[in-house]
Amino acid sequence: MQPRTQEFSKLAARALGDTQVQKALLGLQTGFDQARQRAILELTPEAWDRLRDRAREIRRHTLERLDYYVGLLADNVVRNGGAVHFARDAHEAAQIVLDIARRNGVKLAVKGKSMVSEEMALNHLLAANGVEALETDLGEYIIQLAGETPFHIVAPAIHKSQEEVAELFARKLGTPEGADAEALTRIARETLRQKFLQAGMGISGVNFAIAETGTVCIVTNEGNGRMSTSLPPIHVALMGMEKVTPALEDLGVFYRLLPRAATGQRATSYFTLVSGPRRNEDEDGPEQFHLVMMDNGRSRLLADPELREALFCIRCGACLNACPVYRKVGGHAYGWVYPGPIGAVVTPAMVGLPKAVALPFASTLCGACREVCPVKINIPRMLLKLRADAVEGAPGQRKASWYEGLTFRAWGRLMRSERTLARARGVAVFLQRPFSRDGWLQKMPLPLFYRWTRGRDFPTLARRSFHELWEDELRTSSPQVPPLR
Amino acid sequence: MVRASLFATCLVDQFFPQVGVSTVNLLRRLEVQVDFPVGQTCCGQPAFNSGYRSHALPLALRWLDLFQDSEYVVVPSGSCAAMLKVYTPELLKDNPKDAQRAVELARRTYELSQFLVDVLKVTDVGASYPARITYHASCHLLRELGVSSQPLALLRGVRGAEFAPMEAATECCGFGGTFAVKYADISTAILAGKLRAIEVTEAEAVVACDMGCLMHMGGAMRRRGMKTRPMHLACSHVPKSSPS
Amino acid sequence: MKREEFLSAVRTALGGGADAPIPEYLPMMLRPADQRQKVVTIEARARARRSQLIVRLADMAARQGWKAYRAASPEDGMAYVVALAKEKGARSAVRSGHEVFQRLPLDAALRGQGVQVMPVALGPGVTREQLREAMARADLGITGADYAIAETGSVALLPRQGVSRLVSLLPPVHVAIVEAHQVYETLDDLWALRRMAFLEGNGDMGSYLSLISGPSRTADIEQTLVVGVHGPLEAHMVIMV
Fold first, then answer.
1. pLDDT at residue A481 greater than cutoff 80
2. Which residue in A94, A177, B238, C68 has a CA-CA distance of 20 to 30 Å to B108?
3. Chain A 150-179, residues with CB within 8 Å of chain C CB atoms
4. Contact flag B183-A458 (C-beta cutoff 8 Å)
């Protein structure tokens, strides 16, 4: 997938004008976000907070020695009879999967949900080389049929209406029109069931990987994760290297956090732990197990003490549901795999800050993301750091508009001297007079400000500043009413 | 007697000086000795939040110098108080001496409602405002400073005021400082939801502790001809007998 | 990319060298004897609270979308399954080789109702393909349980010899027979028990674990909950009290 991160404004405008997308986004608030809140209440907010703190401790510890735990995981996967592959970037990772498919003459691969595979644009590479890769998560299946990218980390097709999906299925699969969600789900079940049975390879993501036992853990509701790891003769699991956690016991923390934060569930229908290929005596299961561990910019986040926390992320999508900006522009506006607040932090590390510079600025810094994050990632602070990197950082990182730079230089000069400020103010008060309507400006034909006045009036400068009022009246005056006590 | 220095903020100084006047009157009525260090301009937040830390830095130092002898610093803005209390010490981290001064001054710096309730321990300031009001919880006040109950306690103490809670009062209004200009259409799209929530309350005034949010909401309410007007907490606490 | 190259890039990012000491992480430091002690405590607590745990399991299972049934006796449990098969018009069932079926003559009971029952186990003349085909056709998939977790209303299955991954997955209806001694309180208990198995198995705890907490489901279209996607459309938990 080519990043479209530079088109943020255009894509956002498109989403703002799309009534179906707006309707779907409203639904995320009443759906996922409220479900999350209910789940926390059921567990008790105190217990929830303890889990979050514990999760942070585990993540911090793990990342501090990520080299050790990645190595340990690899050793133990091999001991379980699996193969481990290391990929510096997404391209290399995709190539590894293709090689496995080729070596084994695979023609059809069934895929469980994997955001890492989106980073790799894996489906395209496989298809271009004669391997059909079929998404089996219902949401992913829908967007694959539609030729789109995920709109949301946990609900990729949430932007589509039932009618749109029905129309898509009718067009692509020849099924009856006007089917409802249940009928559409059954259609996907029937269609994909055959594919599961025929596939030569199953591809899955990884939610957590246990270093000590060499186990990858997959969280699903639909059962496609179990299918793709049980039926095909080869299972390939794809993971970002930060997904490793030391011990099985850590699941007591993470598997309590993830379902609740993502969909408000106490537990998902399925939680699948895979420790290598099937043993000889097993009744079924794949003969080969491959784990592909990918860096793809993660070591960049790791190296920056102010951004490392972004690797705490467990990909629940809660920050998307809570973000006022995501709730308006949706997932496609962000132009790459990871949307929303966490996307604005990790995308620059993966595609380069200059290309993705719009994202860290596309935030009101309201802090709702940090508030809902199950691992309390301080996203606003990282957005601020990325903004500073973009403006004043290393030359290769910088991507600021000269125009904005000039504006801030002028602003800085004004603010550094109250005298200059007072003089400039005098001029501005005079100039604004003809445009003022009861203390408000309706149109400001000035650069930057015209944007403000497109949807809002702008206040005029007060006739006298507070400085003046203080000097003239307040400094020496006594309270205008007698004191209370 | 408690002494407090007012950090008025640039928006109040330039656009909404009446908020400063109300703040001073309110504090004096509570027997606080108020001073206003002349020469203060801005906390630096617009530059800091836009990545121009080098332009924010001199303003941080200015705050340190102008307020170094203050017993308390009172700021009638959640986001400016957050800039001073939370981010300024970090901004100055390359110079440990300044950073340390900032940490100490940050400890004595309070947002207005926080100062009234947590320091002065008052919730009833004898204010009277016979109207239907609602409250918007500004994001930085709420999530950077953790101030949630104080403004509500103060509003409960206003005589004659009928409080109409706003749906999703803690959700962002879409202002976000320079975001409101940079991504103006997204900003106003977020604001639309907030305005609907305000409309439902049928309040005469929407009260908040931050002129940034209020300028943004107020500008749109005016554009749309809504009857509700924006009001800073300090102004909803103007004593009855004082001229408005 | 070579493993060493990859790890050295990570080390560089961390600013550390290859000679850093092995980090200490408490849950990994428990030796077999300590882990055993932990498991003994868990077992004792579960035994002491079993009847409450069973009530909680049934309650949470129902909330998770299982049809949960507390069977007063083995006969009662079998009657439930037979009635279910009848209600579904089931003609064929597959079942796992869990130990419980040696005690519970469920095959006979179902066959008595004209339901064909196939135990899923490789054997002379039985290939994986045949088993898979039978499972894909079956109306009912019946398994025991290896653990049941009250906290989340879950059944944990450990696929192995005699326990297929697919019996609980391919048929449209899954029935899990849970015995009282398999019921534990929390997920933490499960992970501790599995780590014990890992240590006792010399670093092998088996290839797979399925934690099942209800029927398969999705909300991918307009957040409308639809039960029954790729896995079972219905999941029944029969708890032998």
1. no
2. B238
3. 155-158, 160-162, 165
4. no
pLDDT surpasses 80 at A484: no
pLDDT of A480 reads: 55
Which chain A residues are within 8 Å of C171, Cβ to Cβ? Answer: none
> With DSSP H G I counted as helix, E B as strand and the rest as coil, what are the percentages for chain A, rounded to 5?
55, 10, 35
Site from A377, A456, A480 to mutate, B interface, most B CB atoms within 10 angstroms: A456
Q: Which is it for strands A215-220 and A270-274: parallel, antiparallel or unpaired?
A: antiparallel
Instruction: Flag whether C touches A (3+ CB pairs, 8 A cutoff).
Output: yes
Strand partners, A293: A86, A239
ipTM of the complex: 0.97
Tokens standing for residue A327: 């709730």
Structure confidence at residue A340 (pLDDT): 98
Mean pLDDT, all residues of chain B: 95
CA distance A376 to chain B (A): 13
CA distances from B13 to A439, B42, B76, B78, B205 (A): 15, 9, 11, 16, 22
Helix (H, G, I), strand (E, B) or coil at A367: coil
- Cβ of B184 within 8 Å of Cβ of A464? The answer is no
What domains does chain A contain, in order, with CATH numbers?
A: 59-299 (3.40.50.10420), 417-474 (no CATH)
**Chain B: partners with 3+ C-beta pairs within 8 Å:** A
First-to-last C-alpha distance (Å) of chain B: 27
Per the CB < 8 A criterion, the answer to whether C156 and C147 are in contact is yes
C-alpha B23: how far from its chain's center? 11
Among candidates A298, A246, A275, which has minimal Cα distance to A72? A246
Give me the residue label for tokens 């609740």.
A260
How close C80 comes to chain A (CA, Å)? 23
Asked whether the beta carbons of residue A467 and residue B38 sit closer than 8 angstroms, the reply is yes
Q: Is the pLDDT at A482 greater than 80, yes or no?
A: no
**pLDDT tens track for C5-45:** 999 999 999 998 778 899 999 999 999 999 999 999 999 99
Residue A29: per-residue pLDDT: 83
Q: Which residue of A has its CA nearest to B168?
A: A29
> Are C10 and A67 in contact, with CB atoms under 8 Å apart?
yes
Whether the CA torsion B203, B207, B213, B214 is positive or negative: it is: positive
Number of A/C CB contacts below 8 angstroms equals: 274
pLDDT band for position A449 (cuts 50, 70, 90)? confident
Q: What is the distance between the alpha carbons of residues C50 and C182, in angstroms, rounded to a whole number? A: 9
Residue ranges of domains in chain C, CATH in brackets: 24-240 (3.40.50.10420)
| φ, ψ (nearest 5 deg) of residue A324 | -65, -30
Chain B 108-167, CB below 8 Å of chain A: which residues?
A: 122, 125-126, 139-140, 142-144
Query: Quick one: average pLDDT of A281-287?
Result: 95
Q: Are A267 and C23 an interchain contact pair (Cβ–Cβ within 8 Å)? A: no
